[in-house]
């Protein structure tokens, strides 16, 4: 009995006029996998993310979440069903506190939206447990605009993970962080992986990609040019010529 893909792209394409930003990608994301996507600027990574999370419609092909086509379902509906994504630019309500951001995320993602029931014990406990797991408890009452970049990045993941997503899509989780901060984030990602969350992320920081992912995809001009173990990226001639540039 083989497990079914939790998320699947079938010959997915996105055209902008004559440009094929995503040019026919097939992908099966299996439960528990951690997939890292790399590739040069303009390769189509963010567009592919937008397609597989239902933020933009495909030009061709089909995306399935839990075996069902996502066509026509709004992104917030998919988020409630367990397909959650974050964005490259750190979002959130910067004038609110860390705790308030977490609670807002829980409330907006709640399936049961009876007013008055949302600040209940269960939701409070989820927020507190997640903040603890991310090392953010001490910053709970700090305003987001006052916390360091690393903590903001962690908060972005925490507000997504508090929903206990089936698939979590992260767009450049460590962009702009210093090397020591990247190391800390790598440990955090290993803890998230250990919970069994299925992860797909885009990341230019190769050290992060190779140490967190168990499967790497490299995109170039809207296509997948590599799909395999992260350890094989550096040895792949095509990847070296278009992406790593002898680095
Ligand atoms: P980066 O690493 O710089 O974030 P990327 O791999 O995420 O790049 P995309 O942002 O997906 O690449 O862009 C792929 C191509 O599609 C680029 O040539 C971009 O200019 C083009 N593109 C993306 N969105 C649109 C749009 N809304 N309209 C027209 N062209 C677009």
Automatic annotation (TrEMBL):
Classification via Pfam families: ABC_tran
Entries under InterPro entries matching the protein: AAA+_ATPase, ABC_AA/LPS_Transport, ABC_transporter-like_ATP-bd, P-loop_NTPase
UniProt-listed GO biological process terms: D-alanine transmembrane transport; L-alanine transport; L-isoleucine import across plasma membrane; L-valine import across plasma membrane
GO cellular component: plasma membrane
Domain named ABC transporter: residues: 7-246
Keywords for the protein's UniProt record, in alphabetical order: ATP-binding, Nucleotide-binding, Transport
GO molecular function, one term: ATP hydrolysis activity
Presence of the UniProt keyword Disulfide bond in the record: no
Protein name: Branched-chain amino acid transport system ATP-binding protein
The species this protein was found in: Lutimaribacter saemankumensis
